[in-house]
Amino acid sequence: MTRCAQALAGLLLITAAAGVQAQLVRTFPANALRGELIVTAPPEAALNRRPARLAPGARIRDADNRVVLSGQLAGQKLLVHYTRDLQGNLLDVWVLTRAEASRNPWPTTPAEAAAWRFDAAAQAWSKP
Fold first, then answer.
1. What mean pLDDT is reported for the chain?
2. d(CA 46, CA 50)
3. pLDDT higher than 60, residue 119
4. Mind listing the pLDDT tens digit for each residue in 12-68?
5. What is the 3-state secondary structure (H, E, C) of 66-121?
């Protein structure tokens, strides 16, 4: 194979991989709640205008599903899905895309999550 053909094949492979990534559908666990997050001074944050703390092993994924550091998000107001650890700290955080944010309803409190029904395959909540 010539160098030109190899370069073309590599470019096609990269383009195909980018297309697959763009179509990524993230799945969220049933215990993921929705909220508004502002990282203030890591590990400190505000969740729904209340003080919160990121867990030591917190994983934050941006809208492109890349792991980001909390300092990169400092000061930004973000719509997220999140889970908490046993101490109540934020453990997993997903910054939502527009499509994910449009999935309504989504619980914002543990009481709502306990009362509503979650369809994991459809990634949709329904109220009783």
1. 89
2. 5
3. yes
4. 555 555 444 556 789 999 999 999 999 999 999 999 999 999 999 999 999 999 999
5. CEECHHHHECCEEEEEEEECCCCCEEEEEECCHHHHCCCCCCCCHHHHHHCEEECC
Q: Using alpha carbons only, give the angle 114, 38, 49 rounded to the nearest 5 degrees.
A: 60
Percentage of the chain modeled with pLDDT above 90: 80
pLDDT of residue 24: 79
* CA pair distance 98, 102, nearest whole angstrom: 6
Q: How far apart are CA 61 and CA 32, in angstroms?
A: 14
Gap between the Cα atoms of 74 and 56, Å rounded: 17
Domains and CATH numbers, the chain: 27-121 (2.40.50)
- CA pair distance 56, 90, nearest whole angstrom: 9
CA angle 53, 73, 61 (to 5 degrees): 80
